[in-house]
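We both want to read discrete structure tokens more fluently, so let's practise on a single case. Would you supply a protein for us yourself, any chain you care to pick? Would you write everything just below, so we can both look at the same thing?
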Amino acid sequence: MLPAGARLRRSEDFRVTMRRGAKAGGRTAVVYVVKTGGASSMAGFAVSRAVGGAVVRNLVKRRLRAVMADALATIPEGSHVVVRALPAAADASFAQLRTDVLGALGRAEVKANS
């Protein structure tokens, strides 16, 4: 799981990341990455009601946190990442979600570095 200090919590952090960050998407999620120059990398998750009911949304959030817990170690220090789940995430298996998020994260990182 993501350590508590590695999670984006403030709405301003989400807003800045989603507006200024590099974006890449897949079938189940859209990933935004922005370089902040801070000391630590952080991730946040946006799972709307369009994904499903509360039980489904919470399942998708738990899966996204598990995927990003491993991925945060591989991204550059000072990066903020927001993962926005799409409705297809509700029906995706963990393996499909992981593949889609990691692929989108890689593409967004390339865009952020250019």
Remarks:
- The helical segments are 11-20, 54-71, 94-113.
- The longest strand covers residues 29-35.
- The two ends are 30 Å apart (CA to CA).
- The CA atoms of residues 75 and 112 lie 11 Å apart.
